[in-house]
C-alpha cells in the first residue's frame, strides 16, 4: 500500500487515518479537506487507496457525488467510506456509487483497522451493523427467490459478502485465482451487478431471502 489519500474535513479524523495508513505500510499519505481538493489530489497523486467522508459542511452527500465522479474515470482504486451516517439507505447509495467498503466513525478501533486492512489487500468491507440494516430494507426486486446459484457460486458469493479478496477466497477453497474471478464475473451477470461492490449488496439480499 504505497500511497493513501484521505478526503475528510475533520483534521483529527485525517490525522487518525494517517497513523493507520503509515502503520499499515503506506509510504505516502495525502490529505484533502473538501471534495474539490480531493479530486485535485487524486489527479495529482493517483493514490493506491482512498478514504472518503460523505458529509462536507452542510452537504451531506457530497462524498457520494465525488465517488461517482471518480468512478467515471477509475473503477479500480479501492475507496473506503468512513462516515458518521448510520442510515442503511445512505450506505447502500455509497456502495452503489462504487465504494469498496463502508465503516462508521463510531465503530470500535479494531473494526476500523479491519476495514482498512481488508481493502488494502483487495477485499471489500461493510460494518456488520450496517450490513444487517441494508439487508432489512424493502427490496421489491430481490434476486434471491428467482435466481438459482450453484453451490460453488453460493460459496464464493458468501465469502465476497464477508469482505474476502479473490486471493483469500482462492486459498480458502483451494481453487485458482482465475476460477474465483470467472465465478465472480458469472455472479455479476446473474445478479445484474455492474461491480463487485454492487455484488456485495446483492449478496446480502440473496442470503437474506434465499
UniProtKB/TrEMBL annotation:
The modification 4-aspartylphosphate is found at residue 53. Residues 142-207 form the HTH luxR-type domain. InterPro entries: CheY-like_superfamily, NreC/VraR/RcsB-like_REC, Sig_transdc_resp-reg_C-effctor, Sig_transdc_resp-reg_receiver, Tscrpt_reg_LuxR_C, WalR-like, WH-like_DNA-bd_sf. It holds the Pfam family GerE. Coiled coil: none annotated. Keywords: DNA-binding, Phosphoprotein. It comes from the Bacteria. GO terms for molecular function: DNA binding. GO terms for biological process: phosphorelay signal transduction system; regulation of DNA-templated transcription. Residues 3-120 form the Response regulatory domain. The keyword Phosphoprotein applies. PANTHER family: TWO-COMPONENT RESPONSE REGULATOR. This is Two component transcriptional regulator, LuxR family.
